[in-house]
Amino acid sequence: MNRSFLIAQISDLHLKAAQRLSYGVVDTLGALRRAVDHLNALQPRPDIVLVSGDLVDFGRPDEYAVLHPELARLHMSCYLVPGNHDHREHLLAAFADHTYLPRSAGEPLDWVVEEHPLRLIGLDTTIPGAHGGQLLDSQLRWLDEQLACRPDAPTLLILHHPPFTSGIGHMDREPFINAAALERLIGRHPQVERLLCGHLHRPMQRRFGASLICVCPGTSHQIVLDLQPTAPAHFNLEPPGYLLHHWHEQALVTHNAVFGEYPGPYPFYDAHGLID
């Protein structure tokens, strides 16, 4: 399929129940509602939305009960992967209507969706009770098999933890387990257009195998950009953001975008040419 296809990626929603503020500061529910309204109003409207983990803050059923109707307001299909703040069983119970998700309790929530111009593979990189990420050897074998069976299908991998060192001290203290093995695997499968990640609450890019990793900013709060090894675990309220991945003419272009209203747009030109 050669038609244009637009994918919005949001990440790190950290939704709470009972209208509580994350860390006593961040209105994550209000931020998500603004994000959903923004995506629904975009022209052209995204065909699908990918949510790359940390859907809620503590993985509790009451948090997922708040999240489900908010995501249901999207005017397009959305696909979820868990992050380190999520709980697999509680996520599955709340999103039983998301039929692409596997039903095996206790197993990684890996999935494949084949119905779009790009093939989507979701990978569960969570380690229950831990901050860092991993892919088990069994998951790597499964991924290798999935990619080998459709070598000509342009593919996106969606996972929460970026498999690289960011340079932000406190985010790197628990490195991604099996990152080198994953990079070797990706190097064998050039149809992987992107690895789409969250977790770091900042836009970042890195070459990886034969592909490119794109990290999505958060829908509410961002990690402070501090590249010192001793960087403390701090966040700020920089503008919330998302990524737009535009598949067109058999190529994928990724745009970094922000939520919110800002002055403009203003013209570059008037009747006399470039405005002086």
TrEMBL record:
GO terms for molecular function: cyclic-nucleotide phosphodiesterase activity; metal ion binding. Residues 7-203 form the Calcineurin-like phosphoesterase domain. The keyword Metal-binding applies. InterPro entries: Calcineurin-like_PHP, CNP_phosphodiesterase-III, GpdQ/CpdA-like, GpdQ_beta-strand, GpdQ_catalytic, Metallo-depent_PP-like. Belongs to the cyclic nucleotide phosphodiesterase class-III family. PANTHER family: CYCLIC NUCLEOTIDE PHOSPHODIESTERASE CBUA0032-RELATED, PHOSPHOHYDROLASE. This is 3',5'-cyclic-nucleotide phosphodiesterase. Gene3D superfamilies: GpdQ, beta-strand dimerisation domain, GpdQ, catalytic alpha/beta sandwich domain. It comes from Pseudomonas batumici. Keywords: Hydrolase, Iron, Metal-binding.
